[in-house]
Design a protein that fits this description.
47% helix, 325 residues, D-Maltodextrin-Binding Protein, domain 2, 2 domains, alpha/beta, 11 strands, globular
Length: 325
């Protein structure tokens, strides 16, 4: 082969080798869409907008938040699962989207474990055991004793069948050996109203849902299902402190991309959102919303997600929960 031809081939190969990194370095070249699979105004929507403004500035592109509710969060999540894996369509989903829905919706046509490339858990929203003031219990062991003395006579609320609060309470029932009746509602506000009215004796819900009612004396907080106390409720013990270990429950929100998204893009997204989570104004706002910032390594989130999925799968089977698509 002539020397000139060999040089041309070598030059072409060299240009190919440098093209991919250069292209990756250019991402993002246009706005990024983050789909939140719940209604506008949800916790996930608020979190994404707050973080997206800061993360977008770091990435040099606008982050567009799109609320796409329906199907228990499955419609929006599936749109991301089937999107082109180029870093321009992302998901900010809740616990249900990643580790619960695949077990309560028998006919889901995608598997979140294999459909998404996890990036990071953004925030935790720890759940609190709220009780009606008429319940003769000052703490969680007291409630357990009262429920065992009145099997089948007490009710607990949830914002809907198959949600994190519902299944977390089912898990609590299994751990404590209780017979209490599930009453689902269409959202958290009506569930809390039922508790205040005395129609429901127990509701496991996020901190902001019942904090005002506790301060007004319309409800009482027995324990928080977390590994540490929360600043806005410093007198409320954790479930472990109250003598009921193993009860951990939160409705967390996480960032993910379609499986197959290039690793350099995932790394950029992690860095940008992690920086946003460290912003002091963000931290302050999250505390007001009853949220705990996370932003840990991707590997830790992925491992935790797989472990939690196994817990919810067992809980769903034991509780016999299933929702028709």
């Amino acid at each position: 082969m002539p020397i000139a031809r060999r040089l041309l081939i070598a030059a072409a190969a060299s240009s190919i080798l440098v093209a991919a990194p250069a292209g990756a370095a250019e991402w993002p070249e246009r706005p990024i869409t983050v789909i939140v699979p719940y209604a506008a105004g949800s916790t996930g929507d608020a979190v994404t907008r707050l973080l997206g403004e800061i993360a977008g500035a770091r990435l040099g592109q606008r982050i567009v938040v799109e609320a796409r509710p329906g199907g228990g969060g499955n419609i929006g999540a599936q749109a991301v699962a089937t999107a082109e894996p180029n870093g321009y369509t992302l998901l900010v989903g809740a616990t249900n989207n990643f580790v619960i829905n695949q077990f309560v919706f028998p006919n889901m046509n995608y598997n979140p474990v294999t459909a998404f490339a996890p990036i990071m858990k953004l925030v935790d929203s720890p759940l609190v055991f709220y009780a009606h003031p008429s319940v003769p219990a000052a703490d969680l062991p007291g409630f357990i004793a009262y429920a065992k003395a009145n099997p089948g006579k007490l009710n607990f609320a949830s914002p809907s069948v198959g949600t994190a609060p519902h299944l977390a309470t089912e898990r609590f029932k299994q751990i404590a050996g209780l017979d209490i009746v599930h009453v689902p509602f269409t959202g958290s506000p009506p569930a809390m109203q039922a508790l205040i009215a005395g129609h429901i004796q127990l509701y496991l819900a996020a901190i902001p849902v019942g904090l005002g009612q506790v301060r007004a004396g319309a409800a009482k907080a027995l324990a928080i299902a977390s590994d540490k106390r929360f600043p806005s409720m410093p007198d409320v013990p954790t479930a472990a402190e109250a003598g009921v270990p193993g009860v951990f429950a939160s409705n967390w929100w996480a960032l993910a991309a379609p499986r197959g998204t290039p690793q350099p893009v995932l790394d950029k997204l992690h860095a940008a959102f992690a920086a946003a989570l460290r912003d002091p104004n963000v931290t302050k706002r999250f505390e007001e919303l009853g949220l705990i910032a996370d932003g840990g390594p991707t590997a830790a989130f992925a491992a935790g997600m797989e472990a939690e999925a196994r817990v919810w799968e067992e809980t769903v089977k034991m509780a016999g929960v299933a929702i028709k698509n």
